[in-house]
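QA checklist item 7 of 12: single-chain prediction sanity check.
[x] sequence parsed
[x] length recorded as 184
[x] structure emitted
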Amino acid sequence: MACAKTSALNSGKGMLVVIDPAVKDHDFLAARVLGGAQVIVLKAEQDAIAQITSALCVPASEHTSPFNSIHIIVPGSPGVLHFSNGTFSLKTLKQYVNQLQTWFATGDRATDTQPLEPQVLLYGRQVGAGQSGTELIDTLSWLTGAVVIAAKNGERWPSAADQSVELAFPPSVQQSYQGTFSKQ
């Protein structure tokens, strides 16, 4: 896949926020991410994983991704991300292995402002719940080389008590947003 030059490579915080248009009030969320984050609203008629991979694409001369975390906001259910253009789960993951392996470059990632390990946060409701959720998280982590954190147990916001997790939205948005990120 050829990489197009894009302003996504200039993210101040190293955060890429990906929002599927099927998410309730996706425009509200896109306008309220943390300052410095790069936001893309997916095109419903195009493959979601291909769009994310394209946004993350780094010229070979740069060796490391400018993104340290990817926040994927999409309707979900245990072990499944329900993108507008189709589902992403263990059943469909095989077709994306090569793309997922490129999401984070293998160069020296440590900087003064970014943690050493990249993160992928999945905001789909209960995506990380149950055995299928755990398997999806583990496989995605293995393929991307990132710590993967997903919403579980009825949550809509990813969380991990023992992880340093910075969500893409300030607490005021988390409290006021009425959507659930679940498959309707």
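[x] summary fact logged: The longest helix spans residues 130-144.
[ ] second reviewer sign-off
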